[in-house]
Every structure is written in structure tokens, then in C-alpha cells.
Fold this protein.
Amino acid sequence: MAPYTSVDKDAVVTEPAESWADVERLYREQGAKLWRAVMSFSGDRSITDEAVAEAFAQLLARGDGVRHPSAWVWKAAFRVAAGELQRRRRTSPSTGYQVHEDPDPRPEVLAALASLPTVQRAVVVMHDYADRPVSEIAETLGIARSTVRVHLSQARRKLRKTLEEHR
Amino acid sequence: MSHPLDVFDPIDDLTPTDLWSDIAHRRPGPDPEPPVSPSRRVRIIVVAFLIAAAAIVVPIVVITQTPDPIPSDTQEVIGHGVARNPMGIPITLAYPPDWYAGKFSQSSNLDPTVDAERQVGLVISNAPGAMPTVSDSEGADAGPLPENPDLPPSYVTVTIIAIEGEQSTRPDSDLPLSMDTAKVAPGGANIRYLDARVGGVPLTIQVQGGPKYSDEDLAEADAIVASIRPEELRVGATAASSNPGAIADVLVIDCTDEGTVVAVPVVEAQDDGAHFEVDNRSGVDEVLIAPAGDGGDDWGGDMDLSSATSHVFDFAPGELMVGCFTDEGIPRVQVRDWSELPGMVPVTIAEPAGGYVSADLSCPAGASSSGITSFGNSGPFPTPEDAARALLIGLEGTDLIERAGYPAQRSASDPGEGVLLRVVREGEVVASIAYSEVGATPILRVEACEQSSITGAPAVGGSPVPAP
């Protein structure tokens, strides 16, 4: 795999979420991408719906207290999803993927992502699919940026191997 | 391989749920995380106090009670066990393996327009939120301490602070240092600070606990302080060449203006893996790590030196190549063998005292097949071994399923982040299984010798990716 040196970008900054219309505009602009990213991370439509809706609802409730609404809502959605995954693992051990409820055929890459450890899956989805900056990913997951890079390289390597094996 | 992002193109075909109506009528639950809410912002109080000879100004961070915002399954230790030469301070110290350590560099004045001396040092904590994570805009190779840390009430932090470039002719403090002689900061916060000189450098050492710290963690903090020693003379290139049998417990990679230097190229792994540390003298951006020999383009990893210069890797014992690179110095083209990049030098990871259990297959390359199998609604299983026993087909009654990897991996109690298993049949490793969980769904990535007939069982109630 070619080394991939990402360039850290400042989180996408829109105007402070001062109004309902601002949040709705952000949802229209980024909601679909965020939903697909969280879906790729969680593998579960119900978790994804809950995480994305909760994140935007929290953003609405916070009004102008959020300086970088885009970065904030991405971080919040992933944290809600991660927390729910953890909760399910601890409290509902028999609950697994609910893939048959999905209206879409499941892309092969989602199955491959499912084979990655949680942190690697989050890192590669947020970075390579959602194009979130390394600094934001590090903050969201509570790990160092160097650790993000290492997880990223390892996740790509595993992902590539898995996908190539199924072609 | 195609561009890394290409593999994600199919995700754009997923149809998102339209959630706006739900959002608009939703009553938000408890805070999912509190990083930027002004009402929960951490208050920063900087208490400047002069130290008679050193004139060190120390920021004391008083933190309001906040819940731990980071789910525990996303936390990760970013540095283990031993810190050497943090920010050039000639000391070593030890800290618990499940604590966090990060170097920092910051102005001693919160007002960036004031030309003030720079504080450098190391912060160690049982809470990851205390770690510096942002690059310093002033160009130092470590960021400042976080201004708005989100810390659990049980946090305990040790901060070792020096003034950049400051030396002292006064004698060093008696060792071991003891926080029993520390001063207690005025006010209600649980802060003690100790003035000391180690290795000729004046230090201020601060131990701080949250409102619900435990006595055990506070004792750990005091033990960290007691472990501080002057830096032992590092084995240099000349010494190493005269002592080729030397084995280090931390692989120290020196990034010099002349290139990558590893004075002691053999490192004995510890229970949790191989400890790497970089002395970035030349200001490079990262260290690349690649398998030696015919590892192809299967590269091992990298270390971004802008925020951390130490890491623990779980690479299997064996030979690797390491090299210091600037971002601009890394080729953007496909490279068949990273170990052949100019500037890479060989290093060897030796097995830890607790042993490394390899999951490499006994059969030759090309005589195995692999695939991943996920199992929805098939659990719960008491252990990953039980899951493998129940869900794989082709296993024989006498097959031994056991943990592999480093001792800490083998004893891991939470399988969520991945467990490595191996199947031993008549003394031969005939299958390796990377076990992980997504939610409660076991995911088994099986690589097995073809003659073993081991493969994934049909999934139960889920959507498997069957082994080919």
C-alpha cells in the first residue's frame, strides 16, 4: 500500500449554529455523508439512525454554544454510536447485525469493515470515507494522532487483504 | 491497489434514513459528550508562583467534574511504561502500563502576544483527556497542555515541568524524590507540587487529583515521582559497535541529520509488545516501519512524530526495517518493498520473557485459504475459544484452540478489540483465527491450511461473508 500522508485540515467551520435553519442546512449538506459513515462504522441501521438524530438534536439544543457545528456533530454521532455498540455488547449479547432490515444490498466493503477492530474501523471510515481530519479523529476517539496514523495504515492493509480475497 | 478511498465508493449507494423530522421533534437525551459546551467548559486558572532560583511559572489546571466522555472501548494506551528524555529533559521515569503519557511545550503565559519563556515537560495521567493532542502553533514538536480537558472525577495527573534551556549549578535533589515533602497548593483543589533538580535541570513536579480520585491512583502518582532518575548514558553508535550483543528493552530510533541511527538494533519485546521510542533530532515528520525481506508492500505502520514519539507495537518478533522521513521525503508512488526505501535500517524484535505464541501456519505459503465469517445472533459465547469451537467446521476433537500473540494479548479479557487464536493439530499450527466482535456479533477471520479442512460454519441469523 502506498503511504498516504494526510494533511490535517481545520474542522469544516460553518457559522455558529445560531438558528434552526443553520442546523437544518448542515443536516442537508452533511447528514447523508455522516449517516453513511456511521452506518459503515456501526453496521447497524438502528444505531446509525439513533446516533445521527441524537447528534443533530443535541446540536439544535445547544444553539450558538457550538463553535464548529460540523466537527461537533460528527464527533457526537460517532461517540453515540460507539457507546451504543459497547452497550449492546455488554447488555444484549445475542443481538447482532440486522442486515435483513436494510433496503440496500450490503456493500462488500461493509462486511470487510466488520472484520476490523472497533478503533481501526472508526479511523478508516472517518478518514478515508468521510475525509475528516486526523486531529478531529484523534479527539473523537481519545487517542493520539500518531495512533490514528498507525491504525489507519493497519486498517487499510487488512481491508485491502480482505477485499482482495473475496474477488 | 487503487486509491484508498475508492473502496468506499459503494457506501455512497446506501440510502440514508431521512431523520430531519425526528431531529426537529426530538427531545435530546443526556449529553453524548461535552467537549465544547460552554456550560461545561473546564475553567482554567493559572497560578503563577515564583521559584526562588528557577523562576518557573507553573499553570495549575483546576477541573470541574465531568463524566468520562470517551467510551472505554475506544480508549487506547499511547505510551507505555517508560519515558526517557521527555522534551530533552535528561530524566527517565516509569509509569503504570494502563496510564497515559504525553510531552508538551507551551508558553508560560496564556496570552500568546506576550513574549514568555517556554515550559516543556511530560504529563502522565490515568485519564487520556489530560494528554496534549494539538500541535503547537509556535512550531515546537509537542503541543501545549489541553486548555479544556474533559476528565473524569477520578483523574490523577503527574506533570513534570521545566523551563526550556534552563540549567542549574546547584546540586541535584536526593533520590528518590518524595511527594511527602511537596507543598500543597492553596485552595480546594487536590494539588501538590514539588521543586526538584534532577540531571542538573530544575523541575517543578505537580500531582493533581480530581474530586473523586482513588488512594491507589494517588499512590501510583507518587510512585511515578519516586521513579524519576537522571538519564542514564545512552549507548551510542560507537558503544554499540563495540558491544554488538546489546539488547535494549526499548528500541530507540535516532533521527539525525545524517539519517536514521539505531544504536542498539535489537529490542526485547515486553509483555504488551515492542516498545519504540524516537529521538527526533532532525525534525522529521514520521518513522516508517516495514517488514524486512520479502514483506512486499505489506507495511507495518508508522509513527507520526508531531504528537508522540513513543509507541508499543504488536508486530511479531522478527526483523523489521525502520526509517525517519519527512512528509515530502516519502515516495508517492507504489513501492514494492518498503524495506528497500533508501534510509531504512534493519532492527530485530526479540521475544519477550513471557514468550510470543506465533499463529503462523505450519503449511507452506499457497497451501492455505482464508476468509471472514460473521455470525449474527449466534452468541453469546463465554470466550473467543468457545465461539471458535462452536462456529467453525472441520475441527477435530483433539484440535487445540489457544490464544496467540504477546502475553498481554493472550490474557486480554475484552475480545472486542480483537483476539488472535490458533488451532494446533498434532503439534502443527493448522489455522489462525483473528477474532473480534461488532456489537455482539462474533467475527472470525480464519486462515487455515487447506489440508485441515477448517473453515467457517454457515452463519446463524446473520449475513455472513463465507470463507471461499
Notes: The first helix of chain A runs from residue 20 to 42. The CA atoms of residues 43 and 97 of chain A lie 7 Å apart. Chain A touches chain B through 102 residues (CB under 8 Å). The helical segments of chain A are 20-42, 45-62, 69-91, 108-114, 118-129, 134-141, 145-165.
